Amino acid sequence: MPVPDERFLQEGRFAGQSQFVTWSAGWRWVLPATIPNPELSWEIMKFLSTEPGHLANAKGEFALAQEEGDIYVPRLTGHIQSDRMLAMEYLQYLPDEIAELQWFFIEMLEVTHSRPQSPLQDQIMKALSDAATQAVRKQVDPASALSNAQRVTQAALDEYYAKAE
Predict the structure, then answer these.
(1) Bridge partner list, 23
(2) Could you give the CA distance from residue 92 to residue 103 in angstroms, rounded to a whole number?
(3) I want to staple 94 with a disulfide (CB 3.0 to 4.6 A). Which of 20, 33, 41, 98 is the partner?
C-alpha cells in the first residue's frame, strides 16, 4: 500500500518503524453454533492451527493438486514461522517467479495487520474494490471514491445493526 512520505523516510512519528505497512485477511476456521460435537471440533481446529496441523493440511492439499495435475501454492496461515516452513517444503516445486512472489508475501507478514472480521465483509470489500477501480480508471478522484465507499459501507452496517437490535 502507498505510505506517507514520513513513513517511507522513517521520520517523525515513523522513526524506527518499517517503511511499509499493510493489512491482510484470509480464510478462517469457523465452528457453526449447531455443530453436533463442538468439543471435538474445537480440538481439531486447535490442532489445524499449529505447525504440525498446517503441515498436515498442506501435505493433503499438495497430494490433491498433484493428483489433479495442478500446481500447489501453500496458503498463507498468518503464522510466519509456519508459512516459512511450508515455503521451504513446497515452493521448490513451483516456477521461480511464483516462488519469489510467495516469499514476498511471507516477508510482508512482518508488517501486516489483520483486518477485523465483519458480518458484511463481502459488501465492504466490494465497496473498497469499486473505489480503487474508479480511482485507477480516473472515473472519480481517489478521495471521492473512498468517501463514496465509506458512505455505502456505513449505510450497510447501519442497516445490519438496526435489524440486529
Answers:
(1) 113
(2) 12
(3) 98
Alpha helices in 3-120 (DSSP H): 5-9, 38-48, 51-67, 80-90, 96-108
pLDDT digits (tens, 9 = 90+) for 50-100: 999 999 999 999 999 999 999 999 988 878 899 999 999 999 999 999 999
What does each C-alpha distance from 30 to 34, 49, 53, 124 come to in angstroms? Answer: 12, 12, 16, 20
The predicted model scores a pTM of: 0.61
Instruction: Give the Cα separation of 163 and 38 in Å (integer).
Output: 28
- Could you give the CA distance from residue 48 to residue 131 in angstroms, rounded to a whole number? 36
Three-state secondary-structure class, residue 22: strand
Instruction: At 22, give phi and psi (nearest 5°).
Output: -150, 180
Grid coordinates belonging to 108: 510482508
Domain ranges for the chain: 1-115, 118-165
Q: Cell 478521495 sits at which residue?
A: 143
CB–CB of 77/61 below 8 Å? no
